[in-house]
Structure formats: structure tokens, C-alpha cells
## 1
Amino acid sequence: MKAITIYQPWASLIACGAKKCITRPLKILYRGPIAIYAGLVAAHELNRQTSEAIARAFEDYAPIEYLPGYIAALPHGAIVATAELVECWSIVSHPGADTDRARRITVGGELNVPKHHPRFHDVIVPSKTEILFGDWRPGRYAWELANVQEITPIPARGRLGLWNWEGRAT
């Protein structure tokens, strides 16, 4: 199974269903099953707005007063979820062919398909929380995930980028 290394707390935000897209500087052609690997390195310092959004996402897992310790204790060096990588969206300002609608959308994703392709008008519009949980600058890509399944962390040796994981989620 293909796997992707994600820093914490982003990997656990994917696992609990709060984060639906992985934003990357590279386009990907692969579609199919993917394992979410929580890397050994944690994310850099987070701003207050992002920290508050993370706390709200983890409310079901720990009372608010325990969240700083909870976030520090998230699994590292382990597969924490599996999912389906279903699409790769090109991040742009004011996406879509419908100019009236596009004016109201600050940032989003659109498919790189010819004008006559049946999905030419398809766009993805991230929520405010999704924007806080990723890097939605135009010129980057949003890898859309579906059917995310949180699993008991499975220790593994990760790699950078997209890599093959030989293990099996139970």
C-alpha cells in the first residue's frame, strides 16, 4: 500500500476526520488506497487561530484543559489511518469556470482538464478550518481523501514523500 508521511498534529487530524485534504507542492497521478504515517517530527509553532481549531477538532478525544499534553502525546513513527486518495486538485484563486460563483470563492481547487472534459466545472472549496489545517496557496495541490479509517497506531519506518508500506492495517 502507498503511504505518505505527515507531521503531527496533521496526521491525527486526518485520522479523526477533521482534515480532508493533504496540501503539497507537487501534483500526484496516483489514486487509490493510502496509509497515513505520523512522522517523527512535529509541526513547527502554530498560530493561535490554528491551535484553537486543532483543540476543537480534538474535543472528542480529550477535555480542553488536557489538550496541550494530549497533542504532545500523539503517536509518532506510526501508521495512524488508512484512506482512499481520490483526487488531486490544483489550488487556485477564484476557482471554476462560472465567473459569478468564482468571484465569491477566495481559494479552492480545480481539476486540470480540457475545457470539453465532463469534469471541467468541478471545484473543491475548502472550509475555513481546512484552510487552517493546510497550505492553500495558489500553485500548490490538494490531495483529496475519502473513506478515512482511524486505526490503532502501527509502528513503522517512514520515508519522505509517497512510499510503499509493506504492513497491513488491521
Note: The CA atoms of residues 31 and 85 lie 5 Å apart.
## 2
Amino acid sequence: MKLSNTLPTLLLIGFLLPAAHAQDLSAEVEELRQMLTEMQQNYEHRIGDLESRLLRAERSAGNAQQDADEAVELAEQTAIDFSSGASSPNTFNPAIGAILIGQYANVGTAWDQIPGFQPAGEIGTAASGFSLGEAEINFNANVDSRYFGNLTLGFHEDDGSAELEIEEAWLQTTDLPTGLNVVAGRFFSATGYLNNFHSHTDDFVDRPLPYQAFFGGRYSVDGLRASWIAPTSLLFELGAEANWGESFPATQNGKSSPGAWTLFAKVGGDIGDSQSWQVGVSALNADAADRDNGDPANASFTGSSDMAAFDFVWKWAPQGDSTSSSLKVQGEYFRREETGLLNALPYDVDQTGWYLQGVWQFAPLWRVGLRHDIVDSGFAVPGESSKRDSLMLDWSPSEFSRLRFQYTNDKVLPVSDDQWYLQYIMSIGAHVAHQF
């Protein structure tokens, strides 16, 4: 073979071999890429299948839990509905809670009677020094599917001796048609706004002067309350109370008919996401016979006591979240006319009272509040306009504990007095939700 023929052939082979090798590598890369794509698709399919199986398992578990909960509820209800009269003592265990209240006071001129008003209940300033105040024990639970029960006992000291008082003992219906409700027993009246609250939920150490002058601190009912809430977007409630008890300003009459009546109405709603409000009006008519608060030295009144009360509450919290900051403004106005005999002499007097207060939560655990309260006795005597101004600061590390400092410039008596209080409020056990 000639060299001239061999050399072109070798050059052609040298050129073709790298091209063929590159082609083989390209085919191998394409094959690997295809295998990777298939593996990825298979992996995604398997992941999707696993996610579907997990979703089905979670749904099955949720349905099983719901079925279990419904079975427990059905068993409890069946035990109640079909028992022969004595259900298990553990069917509905009552919620039990206790409230402990104590305070230290520095008072210059103490008083236990407001000039021009007949004394009643536990009113007035605390004595200087430390005092235990009042302790409450509360029991509440469902009686059965138709009733809810509540019992509140109050313990306090009076002249060095401990006393036990039944503050509340009532039953409430739970299965009446929508909006209807009936309460029977001893309960706090819906007269006014603040009256329906326990004292440990108050924003100040003591109740406003109108509550002390007109109710002796609080007006309770031994009887019945019927109320109806309209099925509307706004709160609209109407109600009536019949009282056979002797809570001031009424007295027991020993008759089948009640000695006092209350009518009340409430309207409320929201303004956007951050504001809410409520306005109320109530009327109380009470008959009194020899009303002297059990103290023969006090004047005795027999006659009729008619009262009208107006209240409002406005609350603000950013987006409805009151954990960091909030503001509450509330006020009430009372007007009372009493006509009859006072110590056997004709008696006809109009008395008024009101208070306005604001409480600002400026930090998650801290609040500051200011209150002005005043009452007019209707008599042209010194001190007929009794009034006070109070400033408070409280710290609540949790919803179960609160420490409160309060300063009051007291002008109930003709002589002004500066008063200082340091109060603690502690809750143990079940904690009942507060009202609006």
C-alpha cells in the first residue's frame, strides 16, 4: 500500500473517532437525563400518594375523636334523661372557686352614714389599718339539661365576729325558646349596670356613692326574673323582676304578692372592630314598712320608694384585643323619690346621684383609673351634696390576681379627707367569665 493512500485514511479515522465518541457521550447524557426525569416523576407521585394517605388518616382520626366526644355527651345525657331519680354524684361536678380580698387603709375621718340618707347595708370607709375584707366561695354547674345552678357564699367580719351570708342562690333555665330566660332564687338585680357584678370585679376599692346611698352597696332580689333577648344584630334585652325579699330599699311584706318590682331594658353593639357600647334604663318600685336597717336608733320609714336609673358603658381595644391596651368609660345616673312617713311624720323627698369613671390599660399588666361620684340628699342641710374623687392604679400579673393602689379625696362629710388604700384580690379555683 502506498503511503499517499494510507495517510488520508488515517487522518479520516482520527477525525471520525472523537466525533463518534462525542456522539456516544451525548446519547449517554440524554439517557441519564431521561432516567433522572423518570425518577423525579416517580418520586413526586409517591410523595403525592403519601400526602393523600396522610390526609385520609387525619380525617379518619378527626371523625373518630368527634364520634368519641359525641358518644360521651350522649352517654351523659342518657344517664340524666333516663335515670330513676338519683343520678351519679359525679355526672356534673360543680365548678368551685374562692375569692380572697384584703386591704390596708389610711383614713383620717371615717364615716358609716351619708348625710341626708338613711343608712343601709355595709357602707362607709374602712377603718385605718389592715382588714381582711370579704371572702367569697362560689359553686356552679348544670343541674341537668334544663337548668343551671349557682351558689355564692360570702364571709366577712362584723364587730369582731365572723358572719356567713348567702349572696346568691339561684336556678336559671337553659332550654326555653330562643331569647327567653327565667332566673329564680336570690340574685343580683339588673337595676343599674354595676349592681349585677360581684364587688371583686369592680375597678375601684369601693362602690360609687349612689350605690351606697340608694342600695347599701348592692340591691339583691329574692324572687323571679324573666328576660328576653331579641334575635337582632344589636343587643336588645327586656326584662322584669319580682322581689319578695328585704334588700334595701325594700322590706318584706309577708304577702303572696312581691314587695318590689323592677323593669329594665338594655341596648348595645359594636362600632367597627375596636369599639363596643351598651346603654341601659331601669325602674324600681319598692314598698317599705318600718324600714330602719335593724337599728332602733335610725329613723323608721314606711312608704313607697320609686327609682329610675340610666347607665352607659363604652369600651375600646385595638382590633378587639385587650391584652396590651384598652379603655373603658362608664357612668350611671339615679333619681329616687320616697313618699310616706318618716318617724310618723310626712315625708316626701327627691334624691339624686351619679358617677362617671374611666379606666385605661396602658400596658399589658397595668391600669389607671379616675372616678368622680356624688349624691344629693334633697335636704337643705350641710353636706347634702356628698362627693368624692378617686384615682387608682392596679397591677394584674394574671387574671387571677390583682394589686391595687387608690387615693380618694373624700368630701362626704363637711370636712374634706385624704384617704389611701392598698388592696389585693386573689382568685382560687374555677374563674367565672365576667359580663360586658
Note: The longest strand covers residues 345-363.
